[in-house]
């Protein structure tokens, strides 16, 4: 949360202007600030939340057939495909990054395939270069679910600028947030203008162009975003320090982590750990909960096993989903709290594993 006095200054502007929504001045200001933050000639269209951002991305690209997607993401990724009456085709994930495995995409392409919708899981980037090559070769559109990706850069370029459209979530749990909110990022001006129409019921004033929906953000949400956006570099720096401390405190334990490549400037959005077995995950989660520490099985279960839509088996995603747990990771988390959580994790391990971990640290 930003300082209340700073947010109140924006509220005073809102009350003075008597403008609460419908593309108010604060929303327009935030879009410009976000475009500058993202860079690379990006166009940013704010919307009400990250789920409607995905839906609008599919609608803006006029997709009606099969969309190759990941089984390892939040349910909104698949839900948006189904909501737009398209067919999700699940492809397994890379065991190192947990993102869609680009090497397995082409085998899933059929004459009905129109697009690829991949998630930058935990802010770790998909193989954007290889996915772009595949999309160009097969004339497919590319949408990225960038709910976790704000602030991550690849080879000096914002991760949000890859693909045809990136859908962002600015939900309160995200690195940068507006309490509730989202955005679509594209480098194509005509596509950005189309998204702008779709989010405002398809019209400008008395000029009606297409069928749309109401996906606008309010001035109250935009004000919160304006307060927090300048703080994002500091947020990332703080989280990087917490990430390093977690890794130090958990050293030696039988845990693994997603792979971070050297060309990535990571945003440290989450701290996922992968246990050796699901039983060990459940034991640790239960003991942390008993100590008042909340964790999340994020993502569990895999989306190819949803009760209302099933897909082909994805053994890598299914295995990771059973063993991954996100530990507490947020702005107000202190180093001493990280040390306490790590100690609780260590104590939850079987005695022989904990002894081995302590031996590794002492050595």
UniProtKB/TrEMBL annotation:
<dbReference type="GO" id="GO:0008483">
    <property type="term" value="F:transaminase activity"/>
</dbReference>
<keyword id="KW-0808">Transferase</keyword>
<dbReference type="InterPro" id="IPR015424">
    <property type="entry name" value="PyrdxlP-dep_Trfase"/>
</dbReference>
<comment type="similarity">
    <text>Belongs to the DegT/DnrJ/EryC1 family.</text>
</comment>
<dbReference type="Pfam" id="PF01041">
    <property type="entry name" value="DegT_DnrJ_EryC1"/>
</dbReference>
<keyword id="KW-0663">Pyridoxal phosphate</keyword>
<dbReference type="InterPro" id="IPR015421">
    <property type="entry name" value="PyrdxlP-dep_Trfase_major"/>
</dbReference>
<protein>
    <submittedName>
        <fullName>DegT/DnrJ/EryC1/StrS family aminotransferase</fullName>
    </submittedName>
</protein>
<keyword id="KW-0032">Aminotransferase</keyword>
<dbReference type="InterPro" id="IPR000653">
    <property type="entry name" value="DegT/StrS_aminotransferase"/>
</dbReference>
């Amino acid at each position: 949360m930003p300082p209340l006095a700073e947010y109140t200054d924006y509220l005073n502007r809102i009350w003075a202007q008597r403008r609460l929504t419908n593309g108010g001045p604060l929303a327009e200001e935030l879009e410009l600030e976000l475009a500058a933050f993202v860079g690379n000639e990006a166009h940013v269209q704010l919307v009400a939340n990250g789920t409607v951002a995905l839906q609008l991305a599919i609608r803006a690209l006029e997709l009606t057939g099969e969309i190759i997607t990941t089984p390892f993401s939040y349910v909104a990724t698949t839900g948006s495909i189904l909501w737009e009456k398209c067919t999700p085709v699940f492809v397994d994930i890379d065991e190192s990054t947990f993102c869609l495995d680009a090497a397995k995409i082409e085998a899933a392409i059929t004459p009905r395939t129109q697009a690829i919708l991949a998630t930058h899981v935990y802010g770790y980037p998909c193989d954007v270069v290889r996915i772009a090559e595949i999309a160009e070769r097969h004339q497919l559109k590319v949408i990225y679910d960038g709910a976790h990706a704000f602030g991550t850069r690849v080879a000096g370029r914002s991760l949000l600028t890859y693909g045809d459209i990136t859908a962002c979530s600015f939900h309160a749990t995200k690195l940068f947030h507006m309490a509730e909110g989202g955005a679509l990022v594209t480098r194509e001006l005509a596509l950005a203008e189309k998204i702008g129409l779709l989010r405002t019921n398809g019209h400008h004033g008395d000029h009606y162009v297409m069928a749309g929906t109401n996906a606008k953000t309010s001035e109250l949400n935009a004000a919160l975003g304006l307060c927090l956006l300048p703080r994002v570099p500091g947020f990332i720096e703080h989280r990087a320090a917490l990430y390093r401390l977690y890794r130090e405190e958990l050293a030696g334990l039988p845990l693994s982590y997603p792979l971070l490549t050297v060309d990535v400037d990571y945003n440290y959005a989450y701290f996922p750990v992968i246990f050796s077995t699901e039983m060990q995950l459940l034991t640790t989660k239960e003991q942390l909960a008993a100590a008042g520490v909340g964790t999340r099985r994020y993502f569990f279960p895999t989306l190819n096993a949803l009760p209302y839509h099933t897909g082909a088996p994805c053994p890598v995603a299914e295995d990771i989903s059973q063993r991954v747990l996100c530990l507490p990771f947020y702005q107000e988390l202190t180093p001493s709290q990280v040390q306490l959580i790590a100690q609780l994790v260590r104590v939850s391990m079987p005695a022989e594993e904990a002894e081995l971990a302590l031996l590794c640290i002492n050595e």
